[in-house]
Amino acid sequence: MSDEHKKHSVKSSPPPVHGLLAEYDTPPQILHAAKQIRAAGITKWDTYTPFAVHGIDDAMGIKMTILPWFTLGAGLTGLASAILLQWWTNAHDYAWIISGKPFWSIPANVPIMFELTVLLSAITTLVGMLILNNLPEPSHPLDQVRRFARVTDDKFFLLIRASDPKFDDVETRALLATTHPVAVEAVLEDRVTPERMPTGLVYGLIIFAVASVVPFALAAKARYTKSSSPRIHLIQDMDSQPKYKAQRENSFFADGRAARPAIEGTVAAGDARDDDHFYQGKDGPGWARTFPSEVALNEATMDRGRQRFGIYCTPCHGQIGQGDGMVSRRAESLQQGTWVAPTNMTLEYVRQQPVGQLFGTISNGIRSMPAYAPQIKTEDRWAIVMYVRALQRSRSGSVGDLPPDARASLK
Amino acid sequence: MAISDVNPFEAPPAGDNMFARITDNVTRIAETATPPRAWYIAFGFAQLLLLMFLGSLGYVIWNGIGAWGNMMPVAWGFPIVNFVFWIGIGHAGTLISAVLFLFRQNWRTAINRFAEAMTIFAVVCAGIFPGMHIGRPWLPYYMFPIPNQMDMWPQFRSPLEWDVFAVSTYATVSILFWYMGMIPDFATFRDRATTTVRRVAYGIVAMGWRGSSRQWHVYERAYLILAALATPLVLSVHSVVSFDFATAQLPGWHTTIFPPYFVAGAIFGGFAMVVTLAVPARQFFGLKRIITIRHLELMNKVIMATGLIVGYAYGMEFFVAWYSGNKYEVFTFVNRAFGPYGWAYWTMISCNVLFPQLHWFPQVRRNPWATLIIGLIVNVGMWFERFVIICTSLSRDFLPSSWGYFVPTPVDLMTLGGSFGLFFTLFLLFCRYLPMVAMSEVKAFSPAGLAHGDH
User: Fold this and answer.
1) Stretch (H or E) spanning A24
2) What is the pLDDT of residues B123-153, one digit of tens each?
3) Distance CA A239, CA A233 (A)
4) Which of A119, A136, A154 sits opposite B208 (nearest CB)?
5) Can you tell me the distance from the alpha carbon of A111 to that of B165, in angstroms, rounded to the nearest whole number?
6) Is residue A109 within a helix (H) or strand (E), and if so which, with residue range?
7) Any CB–CB contact under 8 A between B186 and chain A?
8) Does B173 touch chain A (CB under 8 A)?
9) What residue ranges define each of the domains in chain A, with the CATH number in brackets?
10) What is the pLDDT of residues A174-204, one digit of tens each?
């Protein structure tokens, strides 16, 4: 490599001297030389060795590096960001309870604090080492010296730079000679390696930098624009499954429908609801005034009704059916005009309604009350009607309704 | 390129001084045009296994993880067994590099580089298994706190999330440590390069290292700091992995002994893998002068010590189960040894507790081939340890009505076997192209490097 450089350099004036390089064979020799050079008051110099020679720091008077402070700073940053990340995500932005643990507690968050502290410290240590050592360093005047290639193998070198105030070609050579080097060689400045990066590399890096922004730009665009076409779906998960859904087209059948209608003249098991009294609460054209024969008028049905009423009706109608359930009270406290208050079922006009009509209201809904037929079984709806009748009676009774011994306790 | 029948690395290394001989001994492995025939055979075999690995993973991705045998009640099955096995192996490298560095155990310099490489390749293998086990391997980024349209975050109070951070931090720091250690050796490769490709490639990764003492000073400090950071890290990783089990309510998992027991087991299994690789490597690459019998013996002593700790943990688990008076705990351990998985339990005990006792005999622990065989046995035993912990506890928990028996499918076995293909492929490429021994460190601790002249 150095032959090539020499060829180039003969064209113009010879390059200035970068420094003087001395070569040694063993660690003790370089240690000894380093001590002498330091004692001679040289400041712009360095030694180059295949490994970290023990004691060279003291011999050269190298000051302790500030790298540990970089690491400390990064470690504290990692710790702080772990605390902030976990607190903000799990206790603040989207607070959720896990196994009844507090939203924020130190012990459960220690492992991640530790990991991020170590991660940031380690990355910073390596990057800090490179920065403090001025690496990467693609070229150096020493690269022109053929013998210097063995610095990473088995030889030890000492370089005194020409920029040192005490540098003098003759005197420095004499100084180096007193350290008993194997060889001394002048190192010339590097005139061959271009000052600037090769144009191709520069353009390549620019293109790479621009291209690396593209995915983020696309993500940002997708976040702030709307599209009517479905999202690009690289992996289908279970979105498309080899099956037909209701309302879909299917060319296999003559009518083109995927859903098959019931065969004419048939009813699915349990769907034959031809008893209007039981299923509709109807007695001919009007509401039935009596309970259907399928409903047993006994204590068990009453209990069932009370229980179902408690589950389905009390949120709006309240425990005794006066229309003051928790939902209603909350809605009224908000004073929003859209709320239709639930009916007080103990009022006279409701009491006058036939049982069939009460059953119909529960089954089909009324005003803003939804239909409960899909949720409550037919027998249970009748049981609720029975319990509502009992509630109505309890709100409109007179002393005469009580048994004689209970009557006495009221006086 | 002709494959030579004779091992080109049998010859003594060239050079007129100790440093040059060390350089030649290591660099000639990467500089030779024809590696030994054993390398080609091993590499071809590793490629076949790797192909099987990729094939089985592709099959699992395409068909879903039902292709594996994990099914209720043993939902973790092979993937998590393999994950814990590989991550355990990945402990020895950093332990040798960092912990032994802090304890000034200078013998580590001969083996630390390829133990670190082994660590990284084991962590690569380990990471694949939970990544696949999540079921939709294209969504692993759900585990990281990335802002998303669902406005949801990972659950940081879960040990599984700690695992994500612990393993990824460990992988990152191990790679940084490994790379930083190689910079001076890359520079050696660069300076000896005879082709432009090698000069440029090694030149880029060497970053212009020229061995300046001022740079060495910062470098050594950085190495010390990384060692100090990696030491608690290596102890934390397997502790966090053990939390996956220990924080569950399952009998046999819910024990406080798990973190130290897992860490000891990881060092045990990791060192076993180091000797398993070191014995053939020193044989085929002519590194017997650098990785000596003394190194093997020291590693065998570590294996024996950690094996005894692991054996103690096995015994202590039984004692605590009995002492707790908890009938589920007692049942779990009796079932472990004498239940349907008893065969796995006794395999584990004999491989991990009985066979390493042979190292009490100096003739055994100084014999490379005995070292290799016991290393392989310990690796088998450590795989079975994880199998026993996961499968016995999950297959028979509280309700007998939900008991089951885990049977791996052929795909399970192909994935496990194939992961060795990935591991060996990476390792053999490393042997061929990267500095297998930390030359600069070996030189520093060689007799010539330690000579101090006037003091």
Assistant:
1) strand A17-24
2) 999 999 999 999 888 888 889 998 887 888 9
3) 10
4) A136
5) 8
6) helix A106-132
7) no
8) yes
9) 1-192 (no CATH), 276-395 (1.10.760.10)
10) 999 999 999 999 999 988 888 788 889 899 9
Size of interface A-B (CB pairs under 8 A): 221
Whole-complex ipTM: 0.93
A115/B162 CB distance under 8 A = yes
Q: pLDDT tens across B82-120, in order?
A: 999 999 999 888 888 888 888 888 888 888 998 999 999
Band of residue B2 on the pLDDT scale cut at 50, 70, 90: very low
Asked whether the beta carbons of A371 and A365 are under 8 A apart, the reply is yes
| Binary contact (B453, A68; C-beta < 8 A) | no
B214 touches A: beta carbon within 8 Å: yes
Interface probe with A: pick from B152, B153, B156, B199, most Cβ of A within 10 Å: B156
How would you label A144-153 residue by residue, b for 16+ Cβ within 10 Å and e otherwise?
bbeebbbbbb
Structure tokens at B400: 């007998």
Over range A211-222, report the average pLDDT: 91
Domain residues of chain B, as ranges?
18-174+231-450
Instruction: Kindly state whether B5 is in contact with chain A, defined as any CB-CB distance less than 8 angstroms.
Output: no
> In one letter, which amino acid is A241?
Q
Is the per-residue pLDDT at A6 higher than 70?
A: no
Among the partner residues B19, B232, B453, nearest to A32 by beta-carbon distance: B453
